[in-house]
Amino acid sequence: MSGTQTAFEQEFSNSQTDRSPDMLETKLWGNPCPFTFRINYLALLYNTPLYSWVQDTYGLKRPEYVVLYSLALADG
């Protein structure tokens, strides 16, 4: 599969030489870690509304919620 992915990325980058790609296109296809960025991008679509809900419901801002959540996951 990695050979297919690499060939696709090379074809895509070669076909885009006549115009500059927009930022999202670059991040999705011109990124050295494309799979990781795509997973993070999808997670952000879920996390942003979640953090808004936590702030509206409990009055916690994102950094406060992240610290409390991290402490809850820690042993001890």
Low-confidence stretches: none
Q: So what's the oligomer here?
A: single chain
Tell me the β content. Answer: under 5%
Please count the helical segments: 4
Radius of gyration: 19 Å
In percent, how helical is the residue content? over 70%
Q: What's the end-to-end separation, in Å?
A: 42 Å
- What structural class do helix, strand and pairing data support? mainly alpha
Largest sheet: none
Give the rounded overall mean pLDDT.
Answer: 78
The global form is elongated
- How many E-type strands? 0
Record keyword descriptors for this entry.
single chain, 76% helix, 4 helices, 76 residues, elongated, mainly alpha
Walk me through the topology.
Elements (H helix, E strand, L loop, with lengths): L1 H14 L7 H7 L4 H25 L3 H12 L3
